TrEMBL record:
<dbReference type="GO" id="GO:0004830">
    <property type="term" value="F:tryptophan-tRNA ligase activity"/>
</dbReference>
<dbReference type="InterPro" id="IPR014729">
    <property type="entry name" value="Rossmann-like_a/b/a_fold"/>
</dbReference>
<dbReference type="InterPro" id="IPR002305">
    <property type="entry name" value="aa-tRNA-synth_Ic"/>
</dbReference>
<comment type="similarity">
    <text>Belongs to the class-I aminoacyl-tRNA synthetase family.</text>
</comment>
<dbReference type="InterPro" id="IPR050203">
    <property type="entry name" value="Trp-tRNA_synthetase"/>
</dbReference>
<dbReference type="GO" id="GO:0006436">
    <property type="term" value="P:tryptophanyl-tRNA aminoacylation"/>
</dbReference>
<keyword id="KW-0547">Nucleotide-binding</keyword>
<dbReference type="InterPro" id="IPR002306">
    <property type="entry name" value="Trp-tRNA-ligase"/>
</dbReference>
<protein>
    <recommendedName>
        <fullName>Tryptophan--tRNA ligase</fullName>
        <ecNumber>6.1.1.2</ecNumber>
    </recommendedName>
</protein>
<dbReference type="GO" id="GO:0005829">
    <property type="term" value="C:cytosol"/>
</dbReference>
<keyword id="KW-0067">ATP-binding</keyword>
<keyword id="KW-0436">Ligase</keyword>
<dbReference type="Pfam" id="PF00579">
    <property type="entry name" value="tRNA-synt_1b"/>
</dbReference>
<keyword id="KW-0648">Protein biosynthesis</keyword>
<dbReference type="InterPro" id="IPR001412">
    <property type="entry name" value="aa-tRNA-synth_I_CS"/>
</dbReference>
<dbReference type="GO" id="GO:0005524">
    <property type="term" value="F:ATP binding"/>
</dbReference>
<keyword id="KW-0030">Aminoacyl-tRNA synthetase</keyword>
Length: 350
């Protein structure tokens, strides 16, 4: 016998606005690339959507093997996003691990997901390809089950919050498509009593072209060890800016601004008139890399100073950071329980 569960347009009483949800993995010190590619677009989205952000700590566990590191980076990610302008009174920010309903839903979803879908996941396939290229016989070497099931856990994060849109970078688009496919599989099997909302992918406009280069000219990324940390103290920031790779064009020679990492970073942070002026001076000749680096350092140092101060305040053990996250967790759980009770009823374990 089936129990009738009616589907509501919005789970929870909060709002009629559409819900956007995104997760951030706490795996390293936030850098300028994250600010440009993830944090700034997220700030804009918070004006349009009912925005939810969570620290994907259990996703990070597929690679992070130190409890201290996990604790530090989880707080550090939250503090960074708040310091950069996310207002926890307007948005919901929580830790994934504070919403245990996620893991219950993940099991249900894994029971409606074909193994073949996971075999085709980009991240998993990339490791197998790497093993093959290295001549390793067991192509699954180095793959833990968390990594293999990663897309299902991510689908659970998304579907549990009755999410409308998921703003992520291109590298995550397959995961959002999987979440939509998995929701459809669930709905096809159990949709008579309860349906999961099928989420949509939103690629932030910033993703279209703005990839910030790092100190070696490649994409700024933790994996390349070429990042400029967002909250480096002034002296360290100065040293890192000095290290940015440049060619050996002499001071007086004209330079192409658009092939200089220093300029491309400056462009994202300095006022438009400063950017225009520097661009002209580089093209005309007479501005050396040293001078350009000084301008970049001053710009970053001035812009980051108030954020750095706020970040450091939030990172203190006695700040209200943990309380804010706990409050976010309570809000998120209330929302999660409504979806999960629909799911439980639909599969018959209520
Ligand atoms: P990393 O490459 O350092 O490991 P992540 O993969 O953790 O960075 O990225 C987190 C978010 O920051 C993603 O949304 C990604 O699009 C954005 N991001 C990372 N590096 C850059 C960059 N160099 N330029 C623009 N956006 C970036
Ligand atoms: N996999 C995402 C990343 O590596 C993080 C993430 C986990 C996420 N769960 C999510 C993003 C749900 C959006 C929605 O960046």
């Amino acid at each position: 016998m089936t129990k009738a569960v009616t589907r509501r347009d919005t789970v929870g009483s909060v709002t009629q606005r559409k819900v956007s949800l995104t997760g951030i993995k706490p795996t390293g010190e936030p850098h300028l690339g994250n600010l440009i590619g993830a944090i700034r677009p997220a700030l804009q989205l918070a004006d349009t959507y009912e925005a939810m952000y969570f620290i994907a700590d259990y996703h990070a566990l597929t690679t992070v093997r130190s409890a201290d590191e996990m604790r530090h980076y989880s707080r550090s990610v939250a503090a960074t996003w708040i310091a950069a302008g996310l207002d926890t009174d307007r948005i919901t920010m929580y830790r994934q691990s504070d919403v245990p309903e996620t893991f219950e839903l993940a099991w249900v979803l894994s029971c409606v997901t074909g193994k073949g879908l996971m075999n085709r996941a980009h991240a998993y396939k990339a490791i197998r390809d790497r093993n093959a290229a290295a001549g390793i016989e067991d192509l699954d070497a180095g793959v833990n089950m968390g990594l293999y099931n990663y897309p299902i856990l991510m689908a659970a994060d998304i579907l549990l919050m009755d999410t409308d849109v998921v703003p992520v970078g291109k590298d995550q688009s397959q995961h959002v498509e999987y979440a939509a496919d998995i929701a459809k599989s669930f709905n096809a099997l159990f949709g008579e009593t309860f349906t999961l909302k099928v989420p949509e992918l939103v690629l932030p406009a910033a993703d279209a072209g703005k990839t910030l280069p790092g100190t070696d000219g490649r994409k700024m990324s933790k994996s390349y060890d070429n990042t400029i940390p967002l909250f480096a103290p002034s002296a360290q920031l100065k040293k890192i800016v000095r290290r940015i790779a440049t060619d050996s064009t002499p001071v007086e020679e004209p330079k192409d601004p658009d092939s200089s990492s220093v300029f491309l970073i400056l462009e994202q942070f300095a006022a438009p008139d400063v950017v225009a002026d520097v661009r002209e001076r580089l093209k005309a000749g007479g501005m050396g890399w040293g001078e350009l680096k000084n301008i970049l350092f001053e710009t970053l140092d001035t812009q980051m100073a108030p954020l750095r101060e706020r970040y450091e305040e939030l990172m203190r053990p006695d700040s209200d950071l943990d309380e804010r996250l706990a409050e976010g967790g309570v809000k998120a759980r209330a929302r999660a329980r409504e979806v999960l009770s629909g799911v439980r009823a639909a599969v018959g374990v209520d």
